[in-house]
Amino acid sequence: MMMSMMMMADSNTGVCSSEKQTASPSFKIGGDNSDEEEEASVIDPSYRRKLLKGFSIENVQDYGSFEAKVLVLYTGGTIGMKCHNGVYSPEPNFFIQELKKLPMFHNAEYKPKSKYASEIQSDHDAPLVMPVSKEGKHIVYTVLEYEPLLDSCNMTMDDYSRIARDIKKNYDKFDGFVILHGTDTMAYTASALSFMLESLGKPVILTGSQIPIFETRSDGRDNFLGALMLAGHYCIREVTIYFNNKLMRGNRCTKVDNSSLDAFNSPNMSPLVTLGIGIHVDWQSVLRHSSLGRFHISTNLCPNVGLLRLFPSITAATVRAFFRPPIQGVVIQTYGAGNVPHSRKDLMEVFAEATKNGIIIINITQCARGYVSAQYETGKALLDVGTIPGSDMTPEAALTKLSYVLGKDIPLKEKRQMMEMNLRGEMKQMNTPGSYGEVVNLTLIDKVAEAMNLTSVEEVTTLRQAIVPSMMCAAAKSGDIATMEKLLESGGSVMMSDYDGRTPLHVASSEGHRHVVQFLLQKGSLVHARDRFQNSPIWNAIMFRHQDVVRLLHQAGGHLTMSPMRLGQELCCIAAEDNTAMLECMKLVGVNLQQCDYDGRTALHIAAARGHMRTVMFLVENKASINLMDKFNTTPISEARRNKNVDVERYLLSATSVNKI
Prior knowledge:
Layout lengths: L32 H8 L6 H6 L13 E11 L5 E3 L2 E3 L5 H5 L28 E2 L7 E14 L6 H13 L6 E5 L5 H11 E2 L5 E4 L12 H14 L5 E5 L2 E4 L4 E2 L8 E2 L7 E3 L3 E3 L14 E2 L7 E5 L6 H7 L6 E6 L10 H12 L3 E6 L11 H8 L3 E2 L5 H12 L5 H9 L22 H9 L5 H22 L2 H9 L14 H8 L2 H9 L14 H7 L3 H9 L8 H13 L3 H9 L14 H8 L2 H9 L14 H7 L3 H14 L2
Parallel strand pairs: 1-5, 1-6, 6-8, 8-9, 16-17, 17-18, 18-19
Antiparallel strand pairs: 2-3, 4-5, 7-15, 9-10, 10-13, 11-12, 13-14
């Protein structure tokens, strides 16, 4: 029915590709003139004639290549600094102009197919475009340079909130986000954002460098290139840090070296992605969100938190002073597996008094690796006086999580419960039987392996990876949740995709199985995943007019990311087919039904020309403009008159009179 865009997605990866589109809850009538000119140069001139003859959009060739859209928030840091008299310092309006001189960061000959984010940048700062990747995709990125540029040592909670608001403001316009940041406090920012960005469905990657990117020898080029590539090609919907060919969960990272290019480490968790000659993604470790809510931010951080590192002979008076008002929460770094000198009654009384006064105390270890445990008497002593074990959280994660939780307007008991929970993968969570990652043999796979004379673990694993995705999609098509649960127990994943890059969520959305869609979302399916045709689950649901599924996916954060002009073309095609059910689905996701195509024509123009009274009435009832002129100076009324659709013309005239338009 609708035009399919051809691109092979990375099988079994949940690749997030951009639909050569840009979403916005409201669009300008008539579109942008520059968009008209550039689109007209690549769209078949006979498109309008074909449309009026009843061709659907799949009959009209899409000449554009694929684009992934990434927003780069340049906050400052070493990566963009310039040397002045032997001293590195930020240089305003320097970074973007220098990037344009590097071919790996900007292909000046390529013109993006659609303009977007015009409110972000001035006219002379057009988006930059990376050379086409081997996947056939151009990463088009816009750099938003902060003013003033900051050394990360000067970053505060207000800066975290500013970054979160910028991501929220532009969330629907981009496929991923890269934050260029200084290295000194990058782990704090990454940890804070991981909690502040709630129900995140797109990649947010922080990176920087130890040497400025424009120096002859610099780690900045590889770090920035890698972050852009991952943000544009892989839908890893977490806040992460990319450094030295590794993508690590942001709230698991800490800076371990100030003189090495391998500055960051994730001591208690292996990297999510490792880049070598190839790109290896550990999808089993990627965070799976079970929330069905739409993306939103929480910027109310509590500043009354602190970090206290115990040391031998620390006095009770020192600790008591640390717990004085206005402090509301403290992270204490204890010895070994969370041990304190329990023989120090004066010290234990201070901790007990603090928790009694409502101060939340989180116990984490001073060791770089390992986690807090109550297996020793000295560790259990803190638990007995009301402290909360912080498992294997880093100091950065524990402190920012405490600030985030204390900023919530909820009772103290609930805040303590949140601190004990694994909110964003920030702490160790023990596997339980039947959990993801446990390998249980399936009889079918065993039989196939036996018939193929497969004996090694590697061969059987390869067979499972080939068969299970199709079995998951087949179960989703039939609405068989029980089979999907068994497949998940056997090592399957809701992010697996078939040969067309379709995930089980794509299939369930196409079939209209709302209960399956809800199950998959709760298991962590990617609501923004794209198949090889660049279709998302919500677009599949819209195409097949499953309104209940559209509502559920929209609630879970799904949205259309079409450019305004492309959206206008789609609406015109839907109107040509007299498909009011699909128009209703488009309305459910916040689409402006009077968006124009490249000729300035709306769905109402097409419906009036074709004489589709049902669609005309639906559009008029939804505030479509009756007297809007296209570039040929025709209105919906004149189209109805020219095509002798008398009833439609009469209805539009009466509606004009009633609405006084």
